[in-house]
Design goal:
254 residues; 3-stranded antiparallel sheet; DNA recombination
Length: 254
């Protein structure tokens, strides 16, 4: 199929949201193409994005296990695009939160600790403003919030992983199944192997194994999807189509 307005609607929707849940992508593709071959559509969109140094990545959230489509500029640090929207104090807080998450043993930090970081910033930021900003970062998937703690968001993993690896290489573990780097996963009490929660869930669903390394029973999965992971599709295709018609593809920016 020729790349057309239907592809652009999907691209525009992913760009607008930054990270779009797989079930919402599937529903949108069914509405536009009358099939559910997401792999084919993703390949066709990325073929157009590649010359522009952009791509859509499919990434699982380490905390919820949910799969997202994420729009990524492959040559630009996406945090720089936030500079026009947020203050230097807020961005300084975000960098501090990232650093604390990566370097902590549990790879998460409490919301109280995050707010207390305000006192260490060079620029003044009230705790009320910090709380509002961090909530916005959760909505945009740069952070993930669960049980009063902040984890690395799926967008941060998709867009900033190489930076984190270069800066904090020793803090990353390797998933025993997919062999990719991870921060937050399920640890085996017997052999200490660490596995992505979504990888382990897929494995146990198909063959009922315990730990992929030693095959001993694993602790109960800590997979806990957040409320936004179960939201329903609500995209006004006509409105998105109007946006697409007003924006030339060559002007797409991250």
């Amino acid at each position: 199929m020729v790349y057309g307005k239907e592809h652009k609607i999907i691209l525009q929707t992913v760009m607008n949201e930054g990270a779009l849940l797989e079930n919402r992508v599937n529903e949108l593709i069914m509405k536009l193409f009358d099939h559910n071959n997401t792999t084919k559509i993703l390949r066709e969109i990325n073929a157009k994005l590649q010359p522009l140094y952009m791509t859509i990545k499919c990434i699982n959230c380490e905390v919820t296990g949910q799969l997202y489509w994420i729009f990524v500029n492959t040559v630009e640090d996406k945090t720089t695009s936030l500079q026009s929207e947020f203050s230097q104090a807020e961005l300084s807080l975000l960098r501090s939160v990232f650093s604390e998450i990566v370097t902590s043993n549990s790879h998460c930090i409490s919301s109280t600790f995050c707010l207390n970081l305000c006192s260490s910033l060079n620029q003044k930021l009230t705790k009320t403003s910090a709380e509002e900003f961090l909530h916005e970062m959760v909505i945009r998937k740069w952070l993930c919030s669960k049980g009063g703690k902040y984890y690395m968001g799926v967008r941060s993993i998709a867009e900033l992983l190489q930076y984190f690896k270069d800066t904090y290489e020793e803090k990353f573990k390797i998933c025993s199944l997919c062999k990719q780097e991870l921060l937050y996963g399920q640890k085996c009490n017997n052999c200490n192997a660490v596995t992505h929660i979504h990888c382990l869930e897929n494995c146990t669903r198909t063959d009922g194994l315990g730990c992929p390394s030693c095959h001993q029973p694993m602790p109960e999965l800590s997979h806990n999807q957040s409320d936004y992971a179960n939201c329903t599709m609500d995209v006004d295709i006509e409105n998105v189509l109007q946006e697409v018609e007003m924006t030339e593809f060559s002007q797409v920016k991250g």
